[in-house]
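Good day; I would like, with your permission, to put a structural problem before you. A protein sequence and the structure tokens that stand for its backbone fold form the material at issue. The record follows directly beneath this note:
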Amino acid sequence: MTQIFTLTLSPSLDSATTTPKIYPEGKLRCTAPIFEPGGGGINVARAVVYLGGQANAIFPIGGPTGEYLKELLDREGIHTETLKTQDWTRQNMHVHVNNSGEQYRFVMPGARLSDDEFDLLVLQVCNIPSGSILVISGSLPPGTAIEKLTHLVRQAQAMGLQCIIDSSGDALKASLDLGGLALVKPNQNELSTLIGRALEHPDDVRSAAMELVKRGAAERVVVSLGPQGALAVDRDNCVQIVPPPVKKMSTVGAGDSMVGAMTLKLANGADLLDIVRFGVAAGSAATLNLGTRLCSLEDTQRLYDYICKSLNHPVRG
């Protein structure tokens, strides 16, 4: 299997709790918090490991929150390559309200990276064996220029790495402008912004995704469609996978679980259909859990088997 590495520039220590109800000014009594690792690339690596694969997570850590983040990953058996930084790793909070079922996500700014710290992360990326998959996922730290990200991606590609970018906004656009990405996963709104026109019909989404492939921006474009699953294209195929009906408890972690599952299948040489089937299954599996928990192998395999037996996804050449 091809080796998998992930890079998280804005990691976090995530806490999840519940409260009976939420209202202004008063004291909101909460349950004891559950702490979990957070950050796009970190969660992608965790999902890969949960699903039976191996992954190496590269990320900066700072202060006690950073040390605890690494400790939690060590407990899970995730292989990490860290860089100590001056700024403390951020801490986010997820609150589930019992009487309404609403979820509140409080996301703090990422820790800043100095120029020297960023350059040291680039060096770590340059040490990844050629031919490996590198997943760069999550937001950029405050003050980090887009040009630094594109320089990093260019360096990674020059080293022979297959780059998967799971980001948004200017960071995603700049990465696609470089071209040659192995896979990207925009949602429909993000794809519309990238293409510069409204996508009102299913065939509009397919055409827009195919444009990115034909111009060499990415080999595979997987468009997240929420409850409708995902539509994916490469040069020869277009597939749409509709997820099975499940009782959703939380959508937190669904996207990272999906990327982790697709990365694992890609590392094993799977075709586009199987990559997206497994990705949708893992994303749906993550929604079965409260808080920030990711997919489990048992739930993912059960949903994957269901999807494979289903005939509700068109496949077009």
Observations:
- The first strand starts at residue 4 and ends at 7.
- The chain has a mean pLDDT of 93.
